[in-house]
């Protein structure tokens, strides 16, 4: 793969004596969405935390745009990475505007640049300006999730890490979120790693799949190739959910 956004070689991660990720080797295409698919406990969130420099690998090596995630200067490194989680994780005592713009303020952006980017993101995510002064508990779950995406994108990151951001909402709201996400991706080609346990979601949103099971990569490749040629019973089982 030419200039991947993320490249892993033999990556392992353990907590105490337990290895939760083992010998991960794959690369993700830049400017596209890669889905990390696996059931609960397969190590998906831990993998994102390695890319976000929350943890360092205990084996192997990681490069993100050719850079090894650092043990020091992590705030600077993380500024290039947007991160959004299931349930949005918004600060409850801050308005939508403050939640989204906080990092840009800390980063010294001008008020004009902040206002412009904030307005742009609300528009991209289909959120009305009138929501700007509300608090998270005055929003629907779907709206909270959209605000979470706006916050992750505020600093125009090169890389977007999404940890099951569409899982905690009802199916109709989820379809709306998928549509907004695809719309966003057509405007801003940020390299995205999307963690999901939902193969349908992965097929719809990602051009590249990494299938994880019990901390190991079972199969990875372009979405169509994996779907057309599953090379493992576990992957075949996941694909049955698409029929
Ligand atoms: P997933 O996101 O796929 O559900 P996780 O990455 O959260 O999986 O967890 C993978 C495994 O690592 C699980 O067995 C979990 O209990 C364990 N684990 C995750 N974080 C920690 C931690 N901070 N300390 C100890 N074990 C952890
Ligand atoms: Mg998780």
CATH topology value of one domain? Rossmann fold
Helix content: 25-40%
Structural class: alpha/beta
| Beta-strand content estimate | 25-35%
Mean pLDDT: 92
Main β-sheet, spatial strand arrangement: 5-6-7-3-8-9
Q: Tell me which CATH architecture of one domain applies here.
A: 3-Layer(aba) Sandwich
**Radius of gyration from the alpha-carbon trace, in angstroms:** 18 Å
Q: CATH-wise, what's the superfamily of one domain?
A: P-loop containing nucleotide triphosphate hydrolases
Count of DSSP strands: 9
Describe the structure.
It is a single chain. The protein has 243 residues and is α/β, with parallel strands linked by helices. It has a domain of 147 residues: Rossmann fold (3-Layer(aba) Sandwich). Helix content is 37%, strand content 25%. The strands form two sheets. Strands 5-6-7-3-8-9 form a six-stranded mixed beta sheet, sandwiched between helices. Strands 2-1-4 form a three-stranded antiparallel beta sheet, covered by helices on one side. Strand 6, helix 6 and strand 7 form a beta-alpha-beta unit. Helix 3 runs parallel beside helix 5 and helix 5 packs parallel to helix 6. The longest helix is centred in the last third of the chain and has 17 residues. The chain is globular and about 50 Å long. The protein starts with 5 loop residues before the first strand and ends with a helix. Adenosine-5'-diphosphate binds next to helix 1.
């Amino acid at each position: 793969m030419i200039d991947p956004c993320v490249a892993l070689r033999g990556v392992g991660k353990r907590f105490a004596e337990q290895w939760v990720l083992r010998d991960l080797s794959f690369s993700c295409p830049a400017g596209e969405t890669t889905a990390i698919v696996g059931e609960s406990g397969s190590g998906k969130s831990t993998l994102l935390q390695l890319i976000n420099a929350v943890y360092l690998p205990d084996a192997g090596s990681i490069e993100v745009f050719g850079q090894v995630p650092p043990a020091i200067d992590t705030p600077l490194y993380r500024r290039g990475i947007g991160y959004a989680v299931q349930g949005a994780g918004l600060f409850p005592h801050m308005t939508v505007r403050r939640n989204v713009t906080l990092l840009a303020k800390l980063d010294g952006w001008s008020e004009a640049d902040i206002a412009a980017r904030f307005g742009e993101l609300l528009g991209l995510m289909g959120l009305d300006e009138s929501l700007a002064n509300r608090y998270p508990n005055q929003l629907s779950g779907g709206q909270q999730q959209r605000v979470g995406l706006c916050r992750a994108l505020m600093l125009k990151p090169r890389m977007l890490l999404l940890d099951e951001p569409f899982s905690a909402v009802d199916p109709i709201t989820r379809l709306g979120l998928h549509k907004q996400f695809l719309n966003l991706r057509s405007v801003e080609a940020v390299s995205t790693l999307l963690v999901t346990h939902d193969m349908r979601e992965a097929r719809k949103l990602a051009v590249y799949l990494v299938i994880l099971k019990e901390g190991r990569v079972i199969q990875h490749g372009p979405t169509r190739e994996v779907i057309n040629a599953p090379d493992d019973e576990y992957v075949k089982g996941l694909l049955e959910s698409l029929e």
